[in-house]
Amino acid sequence: MAVITISRQFGAGGITLGKMVADELGYTFADNDIVQRVAKEANVSTNWVESFEKEAGSKLSRFISSMVSKRWVDRVLGDERGYLDEQIYLDYLVLIIAQLADEGNVVILGRGSQYILNDHPDAVHVLLMNQLENRIKFMMDRYGMDHKKAERTVKNEDRRRTSLYKRLGKTDYEDPRLYNLVLNMSQMTLETARDMVCDLAKQKEASKPS
Predict the structure, then answer these.
(1) Pairwise CA distance, residues 46 & 80, whole Å
(2) Residues 197, 127: contact at Cβ < 8 Å?
(3) Strand (E) positions, 38-142?
(4) pLDDT tens readout for residues 173-198
(5) Alpha carbon distance 103, 63 (integer Å)
(6) At 158, is the pLDDT very low, low, confident or very high (cuts 50, 70, 90)?
(7) What is the spatial distance between Cα 47 and Cα 58, in angstroms, rounded to a whole number?
């Protein structure tokens, strides 16, 4: 039961490709599902979690190497929160991504999943990259934005992503050594990328000892 994580530069097609891969393999695509699970566990609204994630680059100020605090099990699972803060969000995020990975047959979009599942034996980590202008055009074509709005959206998300990882203590998020597959989306179609990711996941599954 392979687990696929997709990290990407914003506008490189991560959501679209993730859904295509999940559909092709019959996997679950975990994006909004993560938001819903965090909200349920923390006893807050999904809007709260979504807003928190949008501001993550400024609010998540630290990243501990173990990903969770020593007493996280007691604190996270033993309380009914009804609110969300930095450490609670990180604890739930690690917990839920680990649960999704254990369930298997899942494509997980972003949220540091390439770090959280770095040592997971069934994980395949993918990074999508593209030139800025191509990413702007992708947002225009896929989401009907005009050029100005698409450019602003891409650049804002790039800044948020950079800020988030720096505050998490991670600056190597585009290091190809973190990934099993790095795709330059300016050199291929989404269909080609889908087939490459699916083939890699199938190889991973086939290589597991029976």
Answers:
(1) 16
(2) no
(3) 106-109, 123-129
(4) 889 999 999 999 999 999 999 999 99
(5) 26
(6) confident
(7) 18
